[in-house]
Amino acid sequence: MIIKQIKLGSTDNFSYIVACEYSKKCAVIDPGADKKSILRYIINNNLKLEYILATHFHYDHTSEAESISAETGAKIAMHKDDIPHYAKKVDILLNDGDIIEIGDTVKLRVIHSPGHTPGGVCYYTDGHIFTGDTLFVGDSGRTDLPYGDRPTLGATLRKIMQLPENTIVYPGHDYGLTPTSTLGYEKRHNVNAKEYGFYRGD
């Protein structure tokens, strides 16, 4: 599996390209800005874009989705509970537990992750989780925006923390000390770990 993290835009967003190294088929997660950088990487590495995967509907994570879809034919996927808040086209309505297959080797499991938005999702494959604005390095997503809910986000994070501790966290923004983390690190160092009930001291 190929994972490329691309930092884009004025709000330190991360987009990700996830590809099968054999078939060269790929998906982009959260294309919120700078379509040229995303497509340049895909073209330069001879990849074929099949899916555009949104972790949630916010503009800074989806602004380039429709344009990239029109240019490449890739299908846009979003959880069904965020659709009422998103005015543009979506090709695939996601549900918890759905599997997105990318080429021959990559299978991303959809984990419904409400709290930041009603239809927020994480994308998980063994050893890797793409968390959007649900979980950052050292922090967690905002719940003071419309449709956010703090107790719901807490329940979501406790669910995610049941995954293996060595799972690498790929967040939706570059807000932490490092661009990635692990679930084990977050259990010990996340500022919200005690409040949300997933703290694990050494």
List the topology elements.
Blueprint: E1 2-8, E2 13-19, E3 25-29, H1 35-44, E4 48-53, H2 59-62, H3 65-72, E5 75-79, E6 92-94, E7 99-102, E8 106-112, E9 121-125, E10 128-132, H4 150-160, E11 168-171, E12 181-182, H5 183-189, H6 193-196
Description of the structure:
By secondary structure, the chain is α/β, with parallel strands linked by helices. The protein has one domain: Ribonuclease Z/Hydroxyacylglutathione hydrolase-like (Metallo-beta-lactamase, Chain A). Helix content is 22%, strand content 30%. It is built from six helices and twelve strands. It has helices spanning 35-44, 59-62, 65-72, 150-160, 183-189, 193-196; strands at residues 2-8, 13-19, 25-29, 48-53, 75-79, 92-94, 99-102, 106-112, 121-125, 128-132, 168-171, 181-182. Strands 1-2-3-4-5-6 form a six-stranded mixed beta sheet, covered by helices on one side. Strands 7-8-9-10-11-12 form a six-stranded mixed beta sheet. A hairpin with a 2-residue loop joins β9 (121-125) and β10. The model has no long low-confidence stretch (mean pLDDT 97).
Kindly summarize this structure in a few lines:
By secondary structure, this protein is α/β, with parallel strands linked by helices. It contains 6 helices and 12 strands. The chain has helices at 35-44, 59-62, 65-72, 150-160, 183-189, 193-196; strands at 2-8, 13-19, 25-29, 48-53, 75-79, 92-94, 99-102, 106-112, 121-125, 128-132, 168-171, 181-182.
